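Might I ask for a little of your time on a matter of protein folding? The record follows directly beneath this note:
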Amino acid sequence: MSSSAQKPPIVPYQHSKLSKKAQVAQMFNEIAGRYDLLNRLLSAGIDVQWRRKAIRLLADIQPQHILDVATGTADVALMLARQYPQAQITGVDIAEQMLELGRRKVAEAHLDSRIILQQADAEALPFPDHAFDAVMVAFGVRNFENLQAGLKEMLRVLKPGGKAVILEFSQPESFPVKQLYHLYFRYITPMIGKWLAHHREAYAYLPASVSAFPYGQRMIDLLTEIGYQQVICRKYTLGICSVYCGYKKQS
């Protein structure tokens, strides 16, 4: 057995007997009410720019049907609907409380006719093969219990020639950004999470899950092995965040 296989999964609640998937759902349900506020605060608002840049990477295919995986409170779904006014958006998430907030935001934006949100497991998507022109996921894949299974499901529901865009935290490698980044993520983020969300576990899980994620070339290699074509990676903000793009092979 490889050393990587021996490592226990990174989970929000170290003493819980629940699976990672169940723990992640519980965690996001518990912090749903403060999730958007903390995202803006912890990133100084730059997470909005990361999402916008990633969404624009779908422009080359002008998608008609888009799946937003791990949609959460529908931030990305709403941005997609505004960027691509011809598109229908389906958002899925395992945390029902996050979806409830998302549905309110969609209703307030009067986009109910174009955005549908539903509870679903990213590793067992309830859609037929070749159902979507594009699949988007922002800051969600590191929460998958089985990363390969989730990425394979995303590829399965893509139409031939369709495009996947995956936005996720990565790790800067240059001095002193690397050192400052780890200091902020390891110590300051959990402290802010405890004060504002009353949930230190969620914001201690964040840096741990980022550290364990196969970013950069490892992620490119994984996507290529699964079957994505023309996979590229772009780094944002000195490597704090990366976006991965890949296509489904034309039939």
Q: What stands out?
A: The longest helix spans residues 20-42. DSSP finds nine helices and seven strands in the chain. Residues 133 and 162 are 5 Å apart (CA to CA). The chain has a mean pLDDT of 91.
